[in-house]
Amino acid sequence: MASSNSQVAVRDRLRIAIQKNGRLSQPARALLGSCGLTWRESPDHLFCHGESAPIDLLLVRDDDIPGLLESGLCDLGIVGRNVLSEYNERASSTCGQVQPSELRGLGFGGCRLSLAIPQAWTWQGAGQLQGKRIATSYPGLLARWLADAGVDAEVVELSGSVEIAPRLGQADAGCDLVSSGATLSANQLKPVEDILYSEAVLAGRSNSLPPVLRDLADTLVRRLDGVLRIRDSKLLLFQASRHEVDAVVRLLPDAEVPTQYPLEDGETLALQALCHGAVTWQRMEELKRAGARGLMVLPVERMLA
Ligand SMILES: Nc1ncnc2c1ncn2[C@@H]1O[C@H](COP(=O)(O)OP(=O)(O)OP(=O)(O)O)[C@@H](O)[C@H]1O
Ligand SMILES: O=P(O)(O)OC[C@H]1O[C@H](OP(=O)(O)OP(=O)(O)O)[C@H](O)[C@@H]1O
Ligand SMILES: [Mg+2]
């Protein structure tokens, strides 16, 4: 994609690209929404004007996001690590501008890029692939893995339905995304090596934005950090006698240091702790046995560090 740094210089609104239709579309929108962003809705359009902040949304094919970032037409993007890594793997062999990099893992869209062989084969290691044909939509990442393993194999590039290639005789093995493994087993394949662990990531060109856009991007990333940090967090409120507090706090290794207030009797403390792990009924009962009283578990809506 051609360079367009001049367009970056004149823009004063941040642009963030997300997938238009697909697995990452809704979770990406929801995540940005929980950062306080709203847009003028236009379901059939590819550009949504930001209302709550000068941050506009671009709705595109996920494969196009790294290129939009590299060209400067877009400032941030939400895309699978698999797509970003493949783009950078290919770009590194051609050289060019500042490549987009991963700024944050976002905790959804989890899957693996795995090498899969016919179920009838017994896996004996990478050497078994010497001289074989491997179908994939990720030729850059696969070629890198093969080179690292010292294996000379033919990479057969397909844009989709990779799992059917061995059945059709188009390839001997495949390399594709795996989540439940159902698609592989439906095609009589089995995963033998994981090449990449992927999830949706926030991507951008760090340190290359003009000041106005960088301030907007920094604000958004700070909000995002707050949202990600509390996503599975709960606020625990309880009381405990002074001599039992240590025993209760030992049961909260995933909590931040609790805030403590002495009550009037001088013996009881009121405590509040931000807990980052699951607070199940069983866990509450253990806390109660250790001396916690009046336990309350509250959702955390927002947090700004
Ligand atoms: N089975 C899966 N389970 C979980 N996440 C997946 C799975 N398959 C893909 N993903 C993740 O979701 C991303 C988007 O997948 P999707 O199938 O919607 O992409 P696509 O068909 O390439 O869409 P587009 O039309 O935008 O090009 C993938 O790049 C990957 O990061
Ligand atoms: O391990 P599983 O849970 O079966 O998931 C893996 C499948 O999911 C993705 O395909 P998708 O369903 O998105 O179809 P597409 O590649 O044609 O878009 C991926 O390309 C695999 O084929
Ligand atoms: Mg795609």
TrEMBL record:
The record ties this protein, via Gene3D superfamilies, to: 3.30.70.120, Periplasmic binding protein-like II
Q: Which one of the record's GO molecular function terms can you name?
A: ATP phosphoribosyltransferase activity
Q: What's one GO BP annotation on this UniProt entry? A: L-histidine biosynthetic process
The record's Gene Ontology cellular component field reads: cytoplasm
Residue stretches making up the ATP phosphoribosyltransferase catalytic domain: 61-225
Q: Tell me the domain of life.
A: Bacteria
The catalysed reaction is:
1-(5-phospho-beta-D-ribosyl)-ATP + diphosphate = 5-phospho-alpha-D-ribose 1-diphosphate + ATP
The record ties this protein, via Pfam families, to: HisG, HisG_C
Q: What is the first-listed, main subcellular location in coarse terms?
A: cytoplasm
Segments forming domain Histidine biosynthesis HisG C-terminal: 232-301
According to UniProt, this protein's pathway is: Amino-acid biosynthesis; L-histidine biosynthesis; L-histidine from 5-phospho-alpha-D-ribose 1-diphosphate: step 1/9
Q: What is its EC number?
A: 2.4.2.17
Output the NCBIfam families linked to this UniProt entry.
Answer: hisG, HisG_C-term
User: What is the documented function of this protein?
Assistant: Catalyzes the condensation of ATP and 5-phosphoribose 1-diphosphate to form N'-(5'-phosphoribosyl)-ATP (PR-ATP). Has a crucial role in the pathway because the rate of histidine biosynthesis seems to be controlled primarily by regulation of HisG enzymatic activity.
Q: What is this protein called?
A: ATP phosphoribosyltransferase
State the organism named in the record: Solilutibacter tolerans
Its gene is hisG
